[in-house]
Amino acid sequence: MPRYQRNECSSTDTEAQVPSLDHEIPLADLEILKKIGSGGYKEVFLGTLHSEPVAIGQFRERVTARGMQELKILAALDHPNIVAFTADTVSITFLVTEYCSNGDLHEYIKTQPAPSLSHAILVIQDITNGVQYLHQRNPSVIHRDFKSSNVLLTRDGTAKIADFGLAKEKRTIDSMATSLVGTVNWQAPELWCAEPRYDVKVDVYSCAMVYWEVLQWVLNVKTYPWAGMNEHYIYNEVGRRGKRPKTSNIAVRWPALVELLDRMWAQSPSSRPTIGEASFTLQCFCEDHEV
């Protein structure tokens, strides 16, 4: 996965009423080539728009509240580490985004040899930059389902955050209450109650899980958080006992990164750094280790 340059670090569904968006295109402008993925509420295809490759998400049914949420949020975002929204069709049947030819990070790790630490840090920094952009918006955008399969890789290896179907805008200074969402292997434990209250720190926790996954890859260990464990085990070990993935193999080589992970996946959200603080720590690590 070649990389040409480093990005700079920056400090239940129901049918929805479809509003008018500014990116509508005729369905005839799209050409669908092949299926490349599947999500909870849409199928994803490789296609073309005006002869350019694009990813085309086809909603399985009429547009839902979740699908409309993704459309609204994606259309407002503009950052090199966020997958670019291109268009939607007039009937809101298809969601068109940029095509990231290296697929998602979770699957990429499975098939590719261990990268250098420098290469891995580039991916981690891209992720950090994208999340920081989301959290610094007004109102902040909380992804809520951040995991390695929601990180896409372009041809040159740039990492981009995708899949905003569960994202929410945090419009008040109070923590937001909502229902349980997301994927438990990467998910912050404060989400695991009947009426969870949370803020942007849930994404910080999930980022730590993805960082851990990438660092294991550097050490040629191809795994993900709580691989092979069921939800009951994860709820008990992580939520009740405060257990976290093992980091001893990382600590031997990069103890400063383990210290960062420990802070980011702390049980108490208030003990976690902001994503901006995590970004600063990563910059310091790069300078100290000439990465």
The CATH homologous superfamily name of the largest domain equals Transferase(Phosphotransferase) domain 1
Proportion of beta-strand residues: 15-25%
As for the CATH topology of the largest domain, it is Transferase(Phosphotransferase), domain 1
Q: Which segments are poorly predicted (pLDDT under 50) over 5 or more consecutive residues?
A: 2-21, 171-179
Coarse structural class = alpha+beta
What do you see in this structure?
The chain has 291 residues and is an alpha+beta fold. It has two domains: 24-98, 2-Layer Sandwich (Phosphorylase Kinase, domain 1); 105-289, Orthogonal Bundle (Transferase(Phosphotransferase), domain 1), CATH 1.10.510. Helix content is 33%, strand content 18%. The protein is built from eight helices and twelve strands. It has helices spanning 65-76, 105-111, 117-136, 201-218, 231-240, 248-251, 255-264, 275-289, and strands spanning 24-25, 30-38, 42-49, 52-59, 85-89, 94-98, 140-142, 151-153, 159-161, 168-170, 176-177, 197-198. Strands 1-5-6-4-3-2 form a six-stranded mixed β-sheet, covered by helices on one side. Strands 7-10 form a two-stranded antiparallel sheet. A two-stranded antiparallel ribbon has the order 8-9. Helix 3 (117-136) packs antiparallel against helix 8 and helix 7 (255-264) packs antiparallel against helix 8 (275-289). Mean pLDDT is 84; it is low at 2-21 and 171-179.
